[in-house]
Amino acid sequence: VQLQASGGGVVQPGESLRLSCVASGIVFEINTMAWYRQGPGKQRELVARITSAGSTNYADSVKARFTVSRDNAKNTVSLQMNSLKPEDTAVYYCYSRPYPLNRDYWGQGTQVTVSS
Fold this sequence. Notes:
This protein is mostly beta strands. It has no helices and 11 strands. It has strands at 2-6, 9-11, 17-24, 33-38, 45-50, 56-58, 66-71, 76-81, 90-96, 105-106, 110-114.
């Protein structure tokens, strides 16, 4: 199983970034996918999650700014991040606990820095 994340970078407040994660080794379309992040000195937290049916949920801090989506044909989950704030600065991780493996898998993380 591999989760390959990409798309991080350095942006100014108010700008946008799009993260992508390509999954391999799992039956992508039946599994929930998620994005987590870990900011400096903070615990890792859930940012957004999307189920196999396309249902989504978000951390309160990113609602109305971030959108998670999936493309089952490409085994890809994406996170569109708009109106970025300095407090969004973190390493962002793609995550899955795929059936029937029933263990946690993490991508390698991609750094997002929001700074003026």
